[in-house]
Amino acid sequence: MLTKSPLGLSPAWELPPPDLWWWTTPHGNMIRPQAPTSRAEAAAFLCQAARRDGLVPTEAVAGYRYLPQSAELKKLLLAQTQGQQGWFDTQRERAVIATAPPGWRITKLGKPSENRVLALFEPLALLEHDENISRSGFFDVDGKLVIPPDQFQEAGDFSEGLASVKQAGMSGFIDASGKRVIPPQFREVKPFREGLAAARPQEDGQSGALLTKLEPG
Fold first, then answer.
1. Is 93 within a domain?
2. 116 and 172 part of one domain
3. Among 50, 54, 79, 198, which residue has the least CB neighbours within 10 Å?
4. Does 191 lie in the same domain as 153?
5. Which residues are 159's β-sheet partners?
6. Residue 111 CB partners (closer than 8 Å, separation 6+)
7. Is 157 in the same domain as 193?
8. Which of 143, 83, 84, 71 is nearest to 112 (CA)?
9. Whose CA is closest to 132, among 149, 117, 145?
């Protein structure tokens, strides 16, 4: 029996719990995300998900049985049909809806990293002469905006408690509260790994630098 899981989530979604996300082929094979499958089986699944019958060989389709959606998944899907963004918290099995601040809209959500979710924003009043209107901010894991999008042009995910940010063309690092721990002064920086981060200086011809974190206390 070929079965499907709920579709229609945005690029910002997380996989729901495993018991809500599986389907089987007519041959009894279990299919899961990232697992190998035949083209016919994949085509059958996609066509059934889109409710498009008769587009794949009938031998690849055993029938229909739609798995029930959880109330939280329904909440997320409903919010997305209303133009909102969010993600599914697989650990707590709940939908998290992120709300943009007044005057902004969310264009992309990342995945939770160290209790922060990176988001890209655009102003509702687009300026034709502004070639770089996107801004970055962060939500916490409950969907609360903790670092607004009016400060940084770009940002990276948090790693070892710090996230790279770009302001006025220069890069530096902030902590989870948005405080500038290493002020933007480099042309490019890499995420912290084992207490170190590579940085490219502002001026050409200068040697690169290795940045270290200052531990509190």
1. no
2. yes
3. 54
4. yes
5. 162
6. 12, 14, 87, 117, 157
7. yes
8. 143
9. 149
Considering the domain architecture, whether residues 205 and 109 belong to the same structural domain is answered as yes
CA–CA separation, 121 vs 125, rounded Å? 12
What's the number of domains the chain is made of? 2
Q: For 11-51, how does the pLDDT look when each residue is reduced to its tens digit (9 = 90+)?
A: 444 444 444 444 444 444 555 555 666 766 677 666 666 65
How far from the centroid of its chain's Cα atoms is residue 2's Cα?
29
> What's CA 117's distance to the chain center, in Å?
7
Q: At which residue do the structure tokens 């607004």 appear?
A: 148
The predicted-structure confidence for 112-158, as pLDDT tens digits, reads as follows: 999 999 999 999 886 555 556 889 999 999 999 999 999 999 999 99
**Residue 110 contacts by C-beta under 8 Å, 6 or more apart in sequence?**
12, 117, 118, 119, 157
Q: What are the angstrom distances between the C-alpha of 152 and each of 140, 157, 169? A: 17, 13, 10
Q: Which domain holds residue 181?
A: 99-211
- Report the alpha-carbon distance of residue 116 to residue 137 in Å, rounded: 10
Tokens of 161: 């408690």
25 contacts: CB under 8 Å, gap ≥ 6: 2, 31, 37, 38, 41, 60, 62
Same domain, 122 and 161: yes
Same domain, 49 and 105: no
User: Which amino acid, one-letter code, is at 83?
Assistant: G
173: left (phi over 0), alpha (psi -120 to 50) or beta: beta
Instruction: Read off the pTM.
Output: 0.66
Tokens 């011809």, located at residue: 205
